[in-house]
């Protein structure tokens, strides 16, 4: 076990260096530049598209873990479906980073990626529901899995709006995902999650406030799809249905912000696909809290969600939904604090 962990950490360090080096090269080359506008949270032109380092480093990490034999099972069609789908959304994101694409094009690429994953067998089969127990989804699992893959891809993309915010959450959530996977005996998903954490950490070195390079859609869409796919992989390895809730709980603060903001905009008749600065984290930033403060705040929430998740998989597998109670309370307090701060600043 000690040797296993040592190899993991060595590979993590190597992957972090690869991601940082690729991101730095992108920054030096200034291949893609994000110019400030009315919706921006930055004041100076900043290179974007650095998330390509996350993509390349993660894929290399996945290959290394499989080839080195540390995965507990051979790669199957589900793993290949996840990898191919993630590459598709990453390429679509890179295209959008170079020149903004219509929302329909981006959504179409995400749909293709989801279909590739579903075709490989990456489908949610069962889930634990409060008051009901384990529910077998049957054919409905394809619909739920499709919506989950596309939905989380977009949610992660929406939440990548401040220096270090998405990357720090990725590092924390992926690390807790790896630990949770180890706890339920899924070493393969754990290995893939460690790779994702390492690549995100390498990129974070250049994306921490003040950011020297932005992740761009290439990175945020890849991370969202990768997390969604790893969540489905983990769910397929346990019969109790509780593991299906691991990634939703780890990224609950992202999902809460995305859903609450979408509902508020829909009630006003605003177009949901248009860029804006109405997310809770953006409102907190506009109220006077700097990038570092907001990023630390959300990182703390990600860490707490991780603790709730470990409790869910170790203590409450038969009542997994209870772990969402403190997570929801935390988000309600957060939303209230943002609103109060806005009122005080008005």
Walkthrough of the structure:
With 346 residues, the chain is mainly alpha-helical. It has a domain at 2-31 and 47-247. The chain is 68% helix and 3% strand. The protein has helices at 2-29, 52-68, 77-98, 103-119, 140-158, 165-183, 187-207, 216-235, 246-250, 252-267, 280-286, 291-314, 324-345, and strands at 33-34, 46-47, 126-129, 133-136. The strands form 2 sheets. The protein has a two-stranded antiparallel sheet with strand order 1-2. Strands 3-4 form a two-stranded antiparallel ribbon. Helix 2 (52-68) packs antiparallel against helix 7. The model has no long low-confidence stretch (mean pLDDT 83).
Overall outline: globular
> Strand fraction band?
under 5%
Q: Which sheet architecture does the biggest sheet show? A: 2 strands, antiparallel
Instruction: Order the strands across the largest sheet as they lie in space.
Output: 1-2
Elements, N to C (H/E): HEEHHHEEHHHHHHHHH
Low-confidence stretches: none
Q: What is the strand tally?
A: 4
First-last Cα distance? 56 Å
Tags for this model:
mainly alpha, 3% strand, 4 strands, 346 residues, 13 helices, two-stranded antiparallel sheet, two-stranded antiparallel ribbon
Short account of what is shown:
With 346 residues, the protein is mainly alpha-helical.
What's the structural blueprint in terms of helices and strands?
Blueprint: H1 2-29, E1 33-34, E2 46-47, H2 52-68, H3 77-98, H4 103-119, E3 126-129, E4 133-136, H5 140-158, H6 165-183, H7 187-207, H8 216-235, H9 246-250, H10 252-267, H11 280-286, H12 291-314, H13 324-345
Antiparallel strand pairs: 1-2, 3-4
Helix pairs in contact: 1-2, 1-7, 2-7, 2-8, 3-4, 3-8, 4-5, 5-8, 6-7, 6-8, 6-12, 7-8, 10-13, 11-13, 12-13
